[in-house]
Design brief:
Largest sheet: none
Radius of gyration: 24 Å
Low-confidence stretches: none
Strand content: under 5%
Order of helices and strands: HHHHHHHHHH
Shape: elongated
Oligomer: single chain
Mean pLDDT: 84
Length: 216
């Protein structure tokens, strides 16, 4: 923190590019060389980086981001790609996934009541959409023993695994079904989706065969 406080001062020697601090180059007309542009760029980069550590600025920008997300969240808990459009499952999962990464970094998402409420509504939305997928399989008389695992379901499991403390809706069968599908058919997917499944199951079922293979 002390380093960045020092960098915020435009007169700080530390803020200057290392190129400008080089004593051997001070005798050269650096202004007439192409290196000057790089030097100024490095100094500006340090100054902007220091602004990121302005805690007051961070607090204001964080709250503005939460407010914007809250305003864009639809009544059903999902988000659309753009304001005025219908909810989109992928972008909704993507937003919740991002919050999950923040949680993993140690950010207390429950510290802000608006954020906590928004997150709970969003997770409920994702659970409902997964349940709809499962019910469609039953309605279409699909063979539930075969591979019915799609990209959205894999992403759902990965996203949902960040928030296991949020209870599932009563009588929901889709979550357990897709978890079992993931354990059975995860090797049939591409390497990226295998990674998502592996991380999800490692959090959901740490004693599962998949989790043991990851640890090995």
């Amino acid at each position: 923190k002390a380093v960045f406080e020092q960098w915020k001062s435009t007169d700080s020697e530390e803020l200057s590019s290392k190129l400008l601090q080089n004593q051997e180059l001070k005798s050269i007309l650096i202004e007439e060389t192409p290196w000057l542009k790089l030097a100024k760029s490095q100094s500006e980069q340090k100054k902007r980086l220091a602004l990121l550590f302005d805690y007051n600025r961070m607090a204001v920008e964080k709250q503005a981001a939460i407010d914007k997300l809250s305003q864009l969240q639809l009544p059903n808990g999902g988000w659309a790609w753009y304001k005025g459009m219908q909810d989109n499952r992928y972008i909704s999962q993507y937003i919740v996934e991002g919050l999950g990464h923040l949680k993993n970094l140690g950010i207390d998402l429950k510290a802000d009541q608006k954020l906590e409420k928004m997150l709970n509504n969003a997770v409920s939305y994702l659970d409902q959409r997964a349940e709809e997928d499962y019910k469609k399989l039953i309605e279409n008389k699909a063979d539930l023993s075969k591979n019915q695992l799609g990209r959205l379901q894999i992403h759902y499991l990965y996203t949902r695994s960040f928030f296991q403390e949020i209870p599932l809706p009563k009588n929901q069968k889709s979550y357990e079904y897709y978890v079992n599908q993931a354990q059975e058919y995860w090797l049939n997917r591409g390497i990226y989706e295998q990674g998502l499944i592996a991380l999800a199951l490692h959090r959901i079922l740490p004693k599962s065969p998949v989790s043991e293979q990851i640890q090995l």
